[in-house]
Amino acid sequence: MAADIGVTGLAVMGRNLARNFARNGFSVAVHNRSRAKTDALVSEFGHEGEFVGSATAEEFVASLSTPRKIVIMVKAGGPTDAVIDELTPLLEPGDILVDGGNAHFADTRRREAALKEKGIHFAGVGISGGEEGALLGPSIMPGGSKESYAALGPLLEKVAAKVDGTPCCVHVGPDGAGHFVKMVHNGIEYADMQLIAESYDLLRQGLGLGAKELAEVFRGWNTGELDSYLIEITAEVLDQVDAATGKAFVDIVLDQAEQKGTGRWTVQTALELGVPISGIAEAVFARSLSGHADQRAAAVNLPGPSGGTVTGARAETLVEDVRLALYASKMVAYAQGFDQIIAASKEYGWDVDLGSTATIWRGGCIIRARFLDRIREAYDESGDLPSLLVAPFFAKALEQAQQAWRRVVTTAVELGVPTPGFASSLAYYDGLRRERLPAALIQGQRDFFGAHTYRRVDREGSFHVDWSGKREENPA
Ligand SMILES: NC(=O)C1=CN([C@@H]2O[C@H](COP(=O)(O)OP(=O)(O)OC[C@H]3O[C@@H](n4cnc5c(N)ncnc54)[C@H](OP(=O)(O)O)[C@@H]3O)[C@@H](O)[C@H]2O)C=CC1
Ligand SMILES: O=C(CO)[C@H](O)[C@H](O)COP(=O)(O)O
């Protein structure tokens, strides 16, 4: 019998996605470059559903019902191109190739355009949730044509996570829209993780709390507004004890955060689109700084406070203040991420629905959080919000949090605890709400040294001052 869907690339994500399809009643053709992973999947999990294992790409393609639907789950970049190149000559017009990896959206656009010429649909589909999500229900962000989604959608929606019965899977938009939204998801993931790490660091330094006590703090936070997957797993990580040493697990892990590239892409793309995603950028840079071990070792004795505990009234409110600072900074990260999606949607004509995007992030993915319901409501109520932060729910929450946020940044600065995420998010917030910014002075400087011209607050047009002459203003 011909299989309903194929999965090629059977490492942690592909294997579990294939099992998810099979557990949901689809027959699944499975294939991997090296045969061992295919055999292992069929022998270990064959009882979970109907799998058709193939040793070669030819067998794999031949085992699928037409039009073929093939999900590629391999390393992003060259490996994805290699798989596409191997499969394409075996496919027919109307077949659908899905890239479920973390591809750069520009690669997806290039691949879709090339395959379109051969009549093959190419859909870049963001998938989040890690190993467990792929098996039990990920958040799925499909791009590609409406036509490809008409065929793929029912399968993807069946295996996606569900929240209140709604699948965390909606057609995001054409060509690279799905992978773009997944990239921004990962950028927000970086920001959220950095903010949580700063909260942990400041409370540990400022109050002298141990890892187990901090696990309890995070567990408590997870019952309120901050309820989210990342807060939940933070408590688990902090609770973990290293079997070899009996120390807190977090204390035996090397403090150098790695990255595979999606956070960096988010920032690079934001720079190109001119969108200030400063909180996300700080999170990427904080990981980079952590990895500069030699510089850190050389700088360790530079002057400045190195921790120290907070006492008195400030100590009593620090946990709640940090919770509020985390909540407010997290709102900024999401607002910046959504701004970036809006900018790309306009640039590429994707028409991404922001409320639906918030809906698909409510479950299954790494950034799933209770407050995504509020984001969905905000964009459903007003699709052209100038910033998420001005939506009534968020404006009110920021009002309640902003004084605590300032106290937290002040405390961190006094203690010498680096909080780039909190500080830059607060600076972004203050920058947005400032009636007049010092950008006017920058314009003056630009006009002085480079005759770059400026606009006036009281008249239309561009102007230039003859700085090296009589310093008179002339229309540019
Ligand atoms: N891991 C995670 O939590 C998440 C990963 N992703 C993305 O999903 C995709 C798969 O991730 P993951 O499961 O972690 O696997 P990896 O990213 O570790 O990729 C391993 C898979 O890629 C295959 N592969 C590598 N090079 C080639 C090549 N040149 N030709 C053919 N196949 C090749 C490997 O085959 P072989 O066994 O023969 O070496 C193996 O099946 C990636 O794009 C990743 O970014 C998305 C969300 C979460
Ligand atoms: O895509 C993901 C989740 O949605 C991965 O977990 C993500 O790639 C991890 O990124 P990094 O290794 O850069 O921290």
From TrEMBL:
Q: Which UniProt keywords apply?
A: Gluconate utilization, NADP, Oxidoreductase, Pentose shunt
EC number annotated for this UniProt entry = 1.1.1.44
| InterPro entries noted in UniProt | 6-PGluconate_DH-like_C_sf, 6PGD_dom2, 6PGDH_C, 6PGDH_Gnd/GntZ, 6PGDH_NADP-bd, 6PGdom_BS, NAD(P)-bd_dom_sf, Pgluconate_DH
For the 6-phosphogluconate dehydrogenase C-terminal domain, which residue ranges apply?
Answer: 178-468
Q: Does the keyword Amino-acid biosynthesis feature in the UniProt annotation?
A: no
Q: How does it assemble?
A: Homodimer.
The UniProt entry's sequence similarity note says:
Belongs to the 6-phosphogluconate dehydrogenase family.
The entry's protein name is 6-phosphogluconate dehydrogenase, decarboxylating
Can you name the source organism? Answer: Allokutzneria multivorans
- Source gene? gndA
